[in-house]
Design brief:
Layout lengths: L16 E2 L4 H9 L7 H6 L3 E4 L8 E11 L2 H10 L10 E7 L18 H12 L8 H5 L11 H20 L16 H10 L2 H6 L1 H7 L11 E9 L2 E14 L2 E11 L5 E13 L2 E13 L9 H25 L2
Antiparallel strand pairs: 1-8, 2-3, 3-9, 4-5, 5-6, 6-7, 7-8, 8-9
């Protein structure tokens, strides 16, 4: 958690390496940005990451990755579901909690015990001032009556109320039921941002059409029920409260998954991470070939141009590569 380039994937039969079928090659060539990759090399090397295709909306950014690890796609999916980022320093996730279908405020009680560090204090200061950068609706912001913005005090009570209400709205109506971010500027709607990201990625949208249709991502509630969760994490040295949904489906041994932050108190409007997993053989042993696509919409990206935008993409690639490396290392045990 839960978060290279294979346009031409040749069937390799030498050196004891074989692919379970030609399907991974044809599927990858239909939507991936990578030229080629060797299973044997990917199985023993770091994940390959690359910039995603350019997008017309300056708020949007994307990165694609590919890697191979031991085990079947079903085992890989289970490891993703069981991954707890709070057990590791690298992802900078301070708190994580799984949620029931219609969560009460009690499901977010851990927020009151957030660590006392600089990013959390920055979040608390922004709450105390009800700063413009906080992503809230006007109605939500009006519920702040002042006081101490720290999570252990009035600030915690305020954000627990916001998170619980938004999580319940998502459970009943998906992203289309989410209030807009409009307390300090023009309305930004999470569902519109997710739809925009997918519109800019036509090949990916086509590849994941079935999964996206069943999830209702960017629209209402879908037929496929997600694993819901929340996190408090570090985004650019400020703590951010987020709400996430994780979807998956297994069809004929091939697995697709979608992980989205459909709400964030700051840092970015939404994120979407898609996974495609195929069963492959490496030296006669079952492995999983995984393509991963990360997409983000953030107001801060709008002000970046040229070298600055490339720097932001490179930083995102670096963070994703670290996250994948940590996941592969821990899940292999």
């Amino acid at each position: 958690m839960r978060n290279a380039c294979l346009l031409c994937f040749a069937l390799i039969v030498s050196a004891g390496i074989s692919i379970a079928s030609a399907d991974p090659a044809s599927e990858l060539s239909s939507f991936s940005i990578f030229d080629k990759a060797e299973l044997g090399q990917l199985a023993k090397s770091d994940a390959k990451t690359a910039h995603g295709p350019p997008m017309s909306n300056p708020r949007f950014l994307s990165v694609q990755s590919v890697y191979v690890m031991p085990g079947s796609p079903a085992q890989h999916l289970e490891a993703m579901r069981n991954w707890n980022p709070t057990e590791h320093r690298e992802p900078k996730v301070y708190l994580h909690g799984d949620l029931p279908g219609s969560p009460s405020e009690a499901a977010f009680a851990k927020l009151k015990s957030a660590p006392d560090n600089a990013p959390v204090r920055a979040f608390a200061n922004a709450t105390t001032k009800m700063a413009n950068e906080l992503q809230l609706s006007r109605e939500e912001a009006a519920k702040w009556k002042g006081g101490n913005g720290t999570p252990s005090s009035a600030g915690g009570d305020f954000w627990i109320g916001v998170l619980a209400a938004r999580a319940r709205a998502f459970s009943s109506g998906g992203t289309s039921a989410q209030p807009p971010y409009d307390h300090a500027g023009p309305a930004v709607r999470p569902g519109d941002e997710l739809n925009g990201l997918l519109r800019e990625q036509g090949k990916i949208r086509k590849q994941f059409a079935g999964l996206l249709e069943s999830t209702g991502i960017g629209r209402g509630a879908g037929s496929l029920k997600p694993d819901l969760y929340w996190e408090l994490l570090n985004a650019d040295d400020v703590a951010v409260a987020t709400l996430g949904a994780f979807y998956s489906r297994n069809a004929g041994g091939k697995v697709q998954a979608a992980d989205t932050f459909y709400y964030a108190s700051g840092g970015y409007y939404v994120t979407l991470t898609l996974h495609q997993m195929w069963p492959v053989d490496v030296n006669g042993k079952p492995h999983t070939l995984t393509w991963r696509g990360d997409m983000v919409s953030s107001a801060s990206l709008s002000d970046l141009h040229g070298v600055e935008k490339l720097g932001s993409e490179s930083a995102m690639m670096k963070d994703i590569a670290k996250s994948i490396a940590l996941f592969r290392r821990e899940s292999a045990h």
